[in-house]
4-hydroxy-tetrahydrodipicolinate reductase (Labrys wisconsinensis), 271 residues
Amino acid sequence: MADMRLVVTGAGGRMGQTLIRLIAETPGMTLAGAVERAGAAAVGADAGRLAGLDANGVVVTDDPLALLTTADGIVDFTAPAASVEFAALAAQMRIVHVIGTTGMSAEDEARVKAAARHAVIVKSGNMSLGVNLLAAVVKRIARTLDEDFDIEILEMHHNRKVDAPSGTALLLGRAAAAGRGIDLDARSERVRDGHTGARGRGDIGFATLRGGTVVGDHTVIFAGDGERIEISHRAESRALFAKGALRAALWGRGRKPGLYGMADVLGLSDL
Ligand SMILES: NC(=O)C1=CN([C@@H]2O[C@H](COP(=O)(O)OP(=O)(O)OC[C@H]3O[C@@H](n4cnc5c(N)ncnc54)[C@H](OP(=O)(O)O)[C@@H]3O)[C@@H](O)[C@H]2O)C=CC1
Ligand SMILES: O=C(O)C1=N[C@H](C(=O)O)C[C@H](O)C1
């Protein structure tokens, strides 16, 4: 089979550059294009050079349309408004769209879901194998423990991160809520400040830390009467997210249109 032709969006960003480097060393795929926001400094640059490699002849553009006519997939770690537009383009072109972008509103999510009627969309708040395994374990523990155990999710990220709680924290919260058979949106405590009153029994709490260059740390705490279970994942490199995203792109090739998650890609959906 011919190489999968991938377009990286947000090419000048932290994940965009990591993806460009990883595509260059991964068999079965080719960098078909690199896209940045109109007006971004990276537009016009060589994508290889931008990512710290030798020049590869792929010039960063702010016009994805022409590129996508010859591409098999988009790998997209940008911003919510941008990802919603790329999803519509992926639907138009009937191609694969891997979305790592976090911080989407319910309206954004609905637009992505609509695009997935025509595109193969794989979307996850965290593309790493470790976090998706952790989510499966969290679901299992939450199913066993009753509301005597308070569930709290703690995350820490670098000081450039713009959304909170992280997409991963929400993914883990959804896994815990699914295990318990409750609706996360109705039962989460996402911010605490001032005289909050006692913790709501059965609620799922979130706490957010930001600082330095932390790639991504997550801990799920089950706090009971006199005992506590804590399970953590620490990402030491963005390469693990990029690796998962490229695995998702290859998995999506030739698949039926729909909205998928990393649990589907990794075969963890039954856990
Ligand atoms: N699911 C996962 O596993 C992971 C998800 N993420 C998520 O991915 C996203 C990006 O993270 P990160 O790389 O650290 O962020 P960066 O800010 O480093 O990169 C985002 C890039 O996207 C660009 N961009 C914004 N709008 C557009 C557009 N319309 N077209 C093309 N490019 C655009 C930005 O340009 P400019 O700066 O000029 O606006 C920037 O270069 C975040 O939402 C983050 O939470 C990150 C890591 C892992
Ligand atoms: O913005 C980041 O950096 C990350 N974002 C994702 C998230 O919101 O969970 C994944 C990872 O933790 C890094």
